[in-house]
């Protein structure tokens, strides 16, 4: 039997699809308990006395790294790291069972950095992870194995474990400013805080600084990439006195 992106290929008869799978949710976090319910399709159900049901579930993780220095140079890696098989002979249907997802995943990544003009240093690590757990149904009857429906469920990794907090550092002569956020990412309607740190080692007062926070959305298509950039906030910081050092928030 072989699998394709569009479905299942191989010597499969639609009449062999005896069961369907339902999960209690469509999306899960790592460590969650998944409740699976198997229900028969009465129109194609064979005699129970010769039926054995084998449910196979395995997890697959897909990881993409993007280095902002040489876009687009995505490096993607896919790995299977979780597998579970359950045999259900002579059970009463619909039947339900549960299993617990792994609490960890083999994430690896390195921080990338590059230098822009005027001494601006930006450090970032973008690590996008999507877990897909596929549940397959196999029906044994008379020594013949039939493959039934399959179910994909998505497991999301928590943001703060995959994306580092962005940091922008200005280092000009004896004057340094660092700008960061309180978290690596935010959900819609969530309140975010932009923090900055100033360290002036000069004998002169500095002029006021203007800081703008942008929202950047990247959409990837087969024929190219579209980038939408929109300013979210603009703030002006008062001039700093000689040898000033301090921390504050912008919003």
From TrEMBL:
Q: Specify the domain of life of the species encoding this protein.
A: Eukaryota
Protein name as it appears in the record: Zinc finger protein, putative
Organism annotation: Entamoeba invadens IP1
